[in-house]
Design brief:
By secondary structure, the chain is of the alpha+beta class. 26% of the residues lie in helices and 32% in strands. The chain folds into 2 domains: 5-123, no CATH class; 157-260. It has helices at 29-32, 43-50, 78-86, 142-146, 158-168, 203-216, 224-229, 250-260; strands spanning 19-24, 52-59, 66-74, 91-96, 99-104, 109-113, 117-123, 151-155, 179-188, 191-199, 235-237, 240-248.
Length: 262
């Protein structure tokens, strides 16, 4: 059963990220392992991930003092976790804003564990990983689109991102998309398929961008953009355009997240 984040008005994440993710940690594990998070190689963190049911995450731009932030829900035995971190030379106990947490200077990760919740953030210095209230409010339509998807995300400033990607392919075009949502569905092995929703201000914009997407296909052959936007015909859905991607392998998924977090 996929966690229904729509019960939450705000995600327990801070503002200022490039990409926000919600995921069922069990169903989307093969995709999670490919996220651009070096900390997933850490032994204690991987043990925490194995005990996680659902999580939300924020990926911040490179110039931000934070790299990523995670708020997870699962089963985290406090006594066992405390013992593991206590006897690890890598982790030191810290305190900020009334919360006690663990910090690893070698990875830059601050981690706070409760019995059924875990919070993590990366940074140059120890930082309370619990988000500043009220948290991050998802854009309108995201929860309806992402319901029942193992892993979903939305892109902040999607128009700037897509316009920049098009310029790099030699197409100096403005792409006035209001929101970009993406669902991932595992299909076989470590492969998955994505469903993209491009949300525009009105149906007129959406029809114009549908024609543009079909036109740009001549310039994006054999690229991750072609796999994303051109493998299947885009479908006009009111003021939205929905696009089903090709089957994406591990390299495709890594390239995709590199595009989303330049």
């Amino acid at each position: 059963m996929v966690f229904d984040y729509s019960e939450l008005k705000f995600l327990p994440l801070d503002n200022g990220a490039l990409v926000y993710i919600t995921a069922d940690a069990k169903q989307a594990r093969s995709i999670i392992d490919l996220l651009p998070l070096d900390i997933l190689d850490n032994k204690q963190v991987r043990q925490m991930v194995n005990r996680t049911d659902f999580f939300s995450a924020a990926l911040f731009p490179s110039e931000n003092e934070r790299g990523f932030q995670v708020a997870a829900y699962g089963n985290y035995p406090n006594s066992r976790a405390s013992m593991a971190f206590t006897f690890s030379r890598q982790w030191k106990k810290q305190k900020a804003a009334g919360d006690k947490f663990w910090y690893s200077s070698s990875t830059g990760v601050s981690l706070l564990l409760k019995s059924n919740q875990a919070f993590a953030v990366t940074g140059f210095f120890p930082a309370n990983p619990v988000a500043t209230l009220p948290g991050k409010e998802p854009p309108a339509g995201f929860f309806d689109f992402s319901r029942q998807a193992p892993l979903s995300l939305w892109v902040e400033n999607a128009s700037v991102l897509i316009s920049g990607i098009l310029r790099e392919t030699g197409l100096p075009l403005q792409f006035p998309v209001r929101q970009m949502f993406l669902n991932f569905y595992p299909v076989s092995g470590n492969n998955c398929q994505g469903l993209i929703r491009l949300q525009f201000d009105n149906a007129t914009y959406a029809r114009g961008m549908l024609a543009l997407i079909n036109l740009t296909g001549n310039f994006m052959n054999d690229s991750i953009l072609a796999s994303l936007f051109l493998s299947n015909p885009p479908v006009l859905n009111g003021s939205n355009i929905d696009i089903r991607t090709s089957i994406l392998n591990e390299d495709d998924i890594i390239q995709l997240f590199n595009l989303l977090t330049p």
